[in-house]
Amino acid sequence: MKKIKRYENKKVLVLGLALSGVNAAKLLHSLGALVTxxxxxxFDENPQAQELLESGIRVVTGGHPVELLDEDFEWVVKNPGIxxxxxxxxxxxxxxxxxxxxxxxxxxxxxxxxxxxxxxxGKTTTTTMIAELLNAERSRGQAYVAGNIGTPASLVAQKATxxxxxxxxxxxxQLMGITELKPHIAVITNIYSAHxxxxxxxxxxxxxxxxxTKNQTEEDYLIVNWDQPELRELSxxxxxxxxxxxxxxxxxxxxxLQDDVIYYQGEPVMAKENILIPGDHNVENAMAAIxxxxxxxxxxxxxxxxxxxFTGVKHRTQFVTEFKExxxxxxxxxxxxxxxxxxxxxxxxxxxxxxxxxxRGNNFDELIPSMSGKVKALIVFGETAMKLNEIxxxxxxxxxxxxxxxxxAVSAAYALSEPNDVILLSPACASWDQYRSFEVRGDAFIHSxxxxxxxxxxxxx
Length: 461
Prior knowledge:
Layout: E1 11-15, H1 18-30, E2 34-39, H2 47-54, E3 58-61, E4 75-78, H3 87-94, E5 99-100, H4 102-109, E6 113-118, H5 123-135, E7 143-147, H6 153-157, E8 165-169, H7 172-175, E9 185-188, H8 196-199, H9 202-210, E10 221-225, H10 229-234, E11 241-246, E12 255-258, E13 261-264, E14 267-271, H11 280-295, H12 300-308, E15 318-323, E16 326-330, H13 337-345, E17 351-356, H14 368-371, E18 375-381, H15 385-394, E19 399-402, H16 406-416, E20 422-425, H17 438-458
Helix pairs in contact: 5-11, 16-17
């Protein structure tokens, strides 16, 4: 870690805790800053604030008093989830106090190369793929994943060395708060409309995403989805070397698909069909990851071997197992209709879909086109079981069964299945009616599949 002097004896306000806030406060404290942490949760209900206080860091809890800004802070480090219309943030801007996010701190102290990944969809999968490709058969150093993926970048930056890379997943919320962060390699997977409740306008959301390249120079690289005309145009504003990727067009200066083979700058790398996780969106994610790996001189054979066994990020169209020619996939992260639509598009084989969960008032009509002709059976559960049953009937799905929960859905799906079927958990709903989180729901699915396979083997099937 670089021992920078920038924050020494300077007053810094860390606004909001959670993992990023806690680690930002600890890092600043170690750099000699005079840190004040402000969190909305009350102190007696706030073990993170209690821990920081024991470490000698001042804490203010139970609200966000604007009067804090009267103390002449020189920086505010904002939790990404706190919106910019928060009164403290508004006051900080009025007083010309820089407002940054934790990833900016991480960049300032990092000795290692930073590779930044953003986009509306596919960030986590692409980030994870890149780390897998760079760590395969590696003899020195390590590629760490950090940022929006769940591990605070400021924590990783303190242990990563010049032999390592930090693969930093960056959300629009984080990218709004950067001043100097400059990935040597930046990736934009795609851009659609999202988080408009936070950003206010699509223009502001897109501008936040494009901050990933604002500090790049002619010595850096920007990997861009060339199948999106908007990104082609936006990339013209970057000073970095553009590495495009496309499923639809041959690009001699980038990554492209020709005759179902993925090429990098004219060189064949691997067959599309050997990417284990399904869907065109995952082909695009793999292309972006391949571009990063090739820029860092990874061998084609290692790239192929890594992607041929990459089962996906847990709970995101994750390949669980194949048994008796049935393939099981865990897409518990699909907590909305769009995510389930995307998952269904990834399969050509007949699908037995497991869906249901918390009722947020949706009518699910948007699912009908992606279900029709593809979903051979629908297993529903949770608060939305009746609604999804009705949608299944409209989509003319021949078999619809209502069960109690995910565990029961696995048994019912297997009983209905035939060789070459896909059994897919993609609920299109949040989990909170029956499960504490989508992770717990996905783990229940995985455990049920493993138990089913084990029992079937014991019975001699």
